[in-house]
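Let us practice reading a record.
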Amino acid sequence: MTSDARFEDAPLSDRPLRLRAETAEDLAIISSLVQDAVGKVGDVAWLPKKRRLVVLMNRFRWEDADAASRARRPFERVRTALTFESVMHVRARGIGPDDPETVYALLALDFEPGEDCSGCIVARLGGGAELAVDVECLDAALADLTRPWEAKAGAPSHDG
């Protein structure tokens, strides 16, 4: 068994996600799929010369949650890369690069449009932290990198 995310032999429902977002509506779909993802601050890379921000995370597989529940099998997570292109500036509030082992929980991605195609992608994190990504245009991509594994903690809960 390979550990990469090619999945040639996997059923269509188990294949890795590869999505692009160029509109706020596209980003809303990606946001729903990365809700409750967890990662470490050290796995966030701002590459100013390339105008790119790369965020590696362990994504809960929401697209498989209903099927897992019906089949009474474990829920799953998958290692995922979320990439933002045409980035002009990145700001953080409530979280910083001081401790690369700090764990964050991603709650939502929002797009606040600016002039023309520009705007700000806001990653809302647990504990009220935020990552604001100023972009020349909305150009984001989500790519699963590994095969899924069992989510030991089960499904995330949103009980009030």
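A brief commentary: The CA atoms of residues 51 and 86 lie 5 Å apart.
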